[in-house]
Write a structure and sequence with these properties.
The complex is a heterodimer of chains A (439) and B (424).
Chain A lengths: L1 E4 L4 E7 L5 E6 L6 E7 L7 E2 L8 E2 L4 H9 L8 H7 L3 E6 L4 E7 L3 H13 L5 H19 L2 H13 L21 H11 L5 E7 L1 H4 L7 H13 L24 E6 L5 E8 L8 H17 L4 H8 L8 E6 L4 E8 L3 H14 L7 H18 L3 H13 L4 H8 L8 H4 L7 E8 L5
Parallel strand pairs in A: 3-9, 10-14
Antiparallel strand pairs in A: 1-2, 2-3, 4-8, 4-9, 5-6, 7-8, 11-13, 11-14, 12-13
Helix pairs in contact in A: 3-8, 9-12, 9-14
Chain B lengths: L1 E7 L2 E7 L5 E11 L2 H16 L7 H10 L4 E9 L2 E11 L11 H13 L3 E2 L2 E2 L1 H16 L5 H13 L13 H4 L4 H14 L1 E8 L3 H9 L25 E6 L5 E8 L9 H13 L4 H9 L6 E6 L4 E8 L4 H16 L5 H16 L5 H13 L6 H10 L2 H9 L2 E9 L6
Parallel strand pairs in B: 2-8, 9-13
Antiparallel strand pairs in B: 1-2, 3-5, 3-8, 4-5, 6-7, 10-12, 10-13, 11-12
Helix pairs in contact in B: 1-4, 1-7, 9-12, 9-15, 10-11, 11-15, 12-14
Classes of the chains: A alpha+beta (439), B alpha+beta (424).
């Protein structure tokens, strides 16, 4: 399938191979650099599922998707995939999110060999007991690093007030204890369940000539190359994966909470829980852009409210707001460093509630739409944003480029349906307070 | 891509024409002296100049104007290159051809940049008091906030110990003791010093018509012609005596180890290019020896890396570890360095590192920021080194040269940020 988006001068080629693997190519002629990413729709959210070929639900140890991401780099025979990429002058990386796990490489040459390596190390794993133990020490240090990060502690604290059991309440990496319960057998179970090609997407951004090692500038040649690699691997027939995401109702678990860390200044966050909702095509992205407009309109830097927060010294830097939606549910988060956490929380809470009946004027609305559009076009300079944006919005049933054009049609009254989210029962807050050192 | 250097508004102007980006960026670079006396003032100036102008006297007015320009962004960022202060004003806007009505943005964006540069929110030689106080408070908080980023804090403490009486010690963000006495009048003088006395150059990158761009830039008016400061790299070598070891206890989960080394290689040293290869091999990539030995073979950390600052002739190593493993990690790091100094090097790592460096460099033209950074860096260092020349020199680096680089390194200071449980 070929889709051309004339206004922003991008073209997307996509094809689903016989084994179910979806392949997406975004050509960028004239560039040296490339970005290739292989993603499975498996992340820290998917911890309770029926393993492939079984009938009962399994509760996997927290952090297993992330641990598996680390572990896949250890290839059969003791080789390490990162090393193998480096030998090809390619830089590799991987990331586990709540909804996905991705493996990627970037570089300018040996790209065909890199692609083959990527597909092979992710699809042909080797799990040994000693390898698992060795990696535990490394992940333990990664988790401890997050425990000292105020933003991470704040985020997790807030999620645990908004949600009672939805897996956003857990750190993606799990805990120092949970990762010790992970075994090679559990890895095999998760891999065979979630790394089936039909659950995966391969995305490539770059000059086709470069990606094909100079052989062709036709994207079809790349599809064929991937197809050839896949034809040598045997996969079982795809089966729908049964996952229990532990959905819950729209009310928050607790309205407030706090923690203490070795800090100089408190850090507060207010969260609003977005209700469970499946959106029609492109609407989840429209919602995100609409929320951007509403939040900017109520306390963004372009408002009097923002100046009021500065005048009353409610914010001390680090003020930001964002929304997150995973295709089912999500949250809005507003945070800052503040010496007046209570006053900040009540100021923002009141503003959020006022959004339920807020009416934006036509002029402001038009100006904000320009800003949102410009901001989006600016981010398209990044290959990573192109690849991940197309992929992640795609997983939420939104075509990033199509939506950008549909966004033009958004009217003030179109905001109304999102304003119903702003109710008291959906709001909670969390603050990290300073606990001074012994010294 | 087409690069042209001409004179616009009386100053050197580099026009980089390429259709790779969806945005156009204009940068105005001011070069002056970086000193302890002006660092904090400069840091505060960069905040107040971004907060408001005469025509847009509030954050609200300023932000709304930028929104009207399709979220054009303007930023003012300052960093030292040894004793040269590099201040960069950047205007980034969406290329008009991607906008629904092909709205003419360039002139309006340039006018906005002009407003920010030449019409500050000041009167009678004094900065607007309300804005001044607000930004002073925010900078005070921001300086204090370094404590809350443990890795950055540990690095700052290490540098403060190692470079106690050197310019390298001065934090470009500023410090509290210098911040308090600054007045709105002082700050206005700092502004005048920047605008009137510093050396100016202009850079533009994007898809534009040359003539039209020159005409748009002319709206900024003439800049003063001032000489360029010539102290952008450290010349003298510092040979450390006994290693300084310092620690601090905080209530944290993971200890931060920072080691500071003196090198004898600045950007003009014959071993400058081999030093880049050395850093990649030693602790600059996943295949590097520090990552392989400390992380992969011994599972002692998640993050470890080395970093070279040739302008200051310094190398730092950062690692997040358990405090109880401090001696072990330190010894392993020093053993690795010893290996390099003895010429016991891995040819595979050597060729991987060179190839990766070459690959990074070949991507320079693919990024707006990397193109601008490279051009500005050349100007600051008064050199005319093309990317392809750097690549040629990298491919000629020998493994013996890498060992020579290692021999110039000597450990000066260790700083460990740790917790009570692990300190003996």
């Amino acid at each position: 399938m070929i889709k051309e988006y004339l206004r922003i001068n991008e073209t997307v080629f996509s094809q689903t191979l016989p084994n179910g693997l979806q392949v997406v190519i975004i050509p960028k002629p004239g560039y040296q650099k490339t970005f290739t990413i292989l993603t499975t729709k498996y992340g820290a959210l998917h911890n309770r599922f029926i393993p492939f070929g079984e009938t009962e639900f399994l509760d996997a140890p927290l952090g297993i998707a992330h641990f598996l991401e680390h572990k896949l780099f250890a290839m059969p025979g003791g080789a390490d995939a990162s090393d193998r990429f480096a030998v090809l002058s390619l830089e590799s990386n991987a990331m586990t999110k709540y909804t996905t796990t991705s493996f990627l490489f970037e570089g300018t040459k040996n790209l065909e060999a890199g692609l083959e390596l990527l597909l092979d190390f992710v699809q042909k794993p080797s799990f040994t007991k000693s390898g698992v133990q060795k990696e535990q020490g490394i992940i333990e240090q990664e988790l401890k690093m997050y425990l000292d990060s105020p933003s991470d502690v704040l985020q997790l604290g807030l999620m645990n007030r908004l949600f009672s059991r939805y897996p956003l309440i857990y750190d993606i990496g799990g805990t120092v204890d949970s990762i010790k319960k992970i075994t090679p057998e559990l890895f095999k179970t998760c891999h065979s369940t979630f790394y089936h090609p039909s659950n995966m997407i391969l995305t490539m951004v770059g000059d086709i000539k470069n990606l094909t090692g100079g052989k062709s500038d036709d994207p079809m040649a790349l599809f064929e190359y991937v197809s050839e690699n896949q034809s040598h691997k045997r996969f079982s027939q795809p089966e729908p994966i049964q996952i229990d995401l532990n959905f819950e109702d729209a009310a928050v678990k607790e309205t407030t909470g706090s923690a203490f860390m070795d800090l100089t200044i408190p850090k507060s966050a207010i969260g609003l829980k977005l209700p469970y909702e499946l959106f029609p095509k492109n609407e989840s992205m429209i919602m995100e852009l609409a929320l951007k407009i509403l939040l900017e309109a109520i306390f963004g830097p372009s408002t009097d409210a923002y100046q009021e927060m500065l005048d009353q010294e409610l914010i001390q830097g680090g003020f930001n707001y964002e929304s997150y939606h995973d295709g089912f549910t999500g949250f809005i988060r507003i945070q800052t460093n503040t010496r007046k956490p209570e006053a900040f929380i009540s100021f923002i809470t009141e503003k959020l509630l006022s959004l339920a009946t807020f009416e934006i004027d036509e002029e402001t609305f038009a100006r904000f739409k320009k800003a949102v559009l410009g901001n989006f076009i600016k981010s398209l300079n990044s290959f990573e944003f192109l690849a991940l944006g197309y992929l992640e919005y795609g997983l939420r049933n939104s075509d990033i480029f199509e939506t950008l054009e549909e966004f033009d049609k958004l009217t003030r009254s179109g905001l109304k349906k999102y304003q119903k989210y702003f109710v008291k029962s959906a709001i909670a807050n969390f603050t990290v307070f300073p606990k001074k050192s012994q010294q | 891509m087409e690069i042209k250097t001409i004179v616009c508004n009386q100053v050197p102007t580099t026009l980089i024409k390429t259709n790779k980006f969806k945005t156009v960026a204009i940068e105005i670079v001011f070069l002056g002296e970086f000193t302890k006396a002006n660092a904090t003032k400069r840091s505060l100036l960069s905040r107040v100049m971004m907060a408001s102008t005469a025509k847009y006297p509030t954050k609200k007015a300023l932000t709304n104007r930028l929104f009207e320009l399709y979220d054009a962004s303007v930023s003012f960022y300052s960093h030292p290159s040894y004793r040269t202060n590099v201040s960069i004003f950047t205007m980034e806007m969406v290329n008009e051809k991607y906008l629904p009505d092909h709205a003419a943005l360039t002139d309006e964006a340039v006018d906005f940049l002009k407003e920010v540069l030449f019409h500050p929110n000041a009167e009678n030689g004094s900065w607007n008091e309300k804005d001044f106080n607000e930004q002073k408070r925010l900078l005070r908080e921001s300086i204090a906030n370094i404590y809350n980023h443990k890795s950055r804090y540990a690095t700052m403490k290490m540098i403060e110990t190692m470079c106690e009486n050197e310019i390298t010690r001065v934090n470009p963000q500023g410090c509290l003791e210098d911040l308090e006495p600054i007045t709105p009048q002082d700050l206005y003088l700092t502004y005048l010093d920047l605008i009137k006395n510093e050396n100016v150059s202009i850079y533009v990158v994007g898809d534009f018509e040359e003539e039209a761009m020159i005409k748009s830039l002319s709206r900024l008016g003439d800049f003063p012609i001032n000489p360029k400061p010539e102290f952008s790299v450290q010349i003298e070598d510092i040979i450390p005596g006994a290693v300084k070891e310092k620690y601090e206890i905080q209530a944290i989960n993971q200890s931060k180890l920072v080691m500071g080394f003196r090198s004898q290689i600045n950007n003009f040293h014959p071993l400058h290019i081999p030093a880049l290869v050395f850093n990649m091999m030693f602790g600059g990539t996943f295949s590097s020896d520090l990552v392989q030995v400390i992380r992969e073979q011994n599972s002692l950390c998640y993050s470890i890396y080395s970093n070279l600052a040739p302008e200051n002739k310094i190398m730092t190593i950062n690692a997040g570890i358990d405090g109880e493993n401090y001696q072990k990690v330190k010894n392993l790091i020093m053993e690795q360095l010893k290996r390099y100094q003895n010429g016991d090097l891995d040819m595979k790592n050597f060729s991987i590192s060179k190839d990766l460096l070459l690959s990074y460099l070949s991507e320079t033209e693919d990024g707006q920021e990397s193109l601008l950074d490279y051009a500005i860096r050349n100007y600051v260092l008064s050199r005319d080194l093309t990317v392809s020349e750097v690549m040629r020199r990298i491919s000629e680096v020998t493994i013996e040269q890498v060992s020579e680089v290692a021999k110039t390194l000597s450990l000066d200071t260790i700083f460990l940020l740790t917790n009570e449980a692990y300190h003996d």
